[in-house]
Amino acid sequence: MDAGAFIAPECGGQNPNDLADETPSKGKEESAMKINHIRIEPVGEGWAVKQDFADNLLVFSSGARAEDAAIALAQRLASAGQASEVSVFLRDGALAGRYACPPTT
């Protein structure tokens, strides 16, 4: 696992690097799993949660609240059968960490 990847126990404890490696069950045609990317980034004095699958932006005054909201969103997507990855970026633009939420259905 790379230094920036975290296993999110709330999301089933899967390594983000393993999400793209899942293959369909035997007898089905192979295809890459779509992963919903959720980003936490600084915006002004707060923190934003951005999604690649929606145009809305969620803004929070603290990074912890943004992270909680992003993981909760990833958990809801996982419950609906969609893999998600949450990436957390610092104010200097560096990647602080990643959480993976594989589909649970």
Structure described in brief:
This protein has 105 residues and is of the alpha/beta class. The chain is built from 1 helix and 6 strands.
**Tally the helices: what do you get?**
1
Beta-strand percentage?
25-35%
Distance between the termini: 25 Å
Apparent shape? elongated
Classify the helix fraction into a percent range: 10-25%
Can you characterise this structure?
By secondary structure, the chain is α/β, with parallel strands linked by helices. It has one domain (5-21, 33-101). It has 1 helix and 6 strands; from the N terminus they run ββββαββ. A 6-stranded mixed sheet has the order 1-6-5-2-3-4, covered by helices on one side. Strand 2 and strand 3 form a beta hairpin. The longest helix is centred in the last third of the chain and has 17 residues, at 63-79. The two termini are 25 Å apart. Residues 20-31 have low confidence and may be disordered.
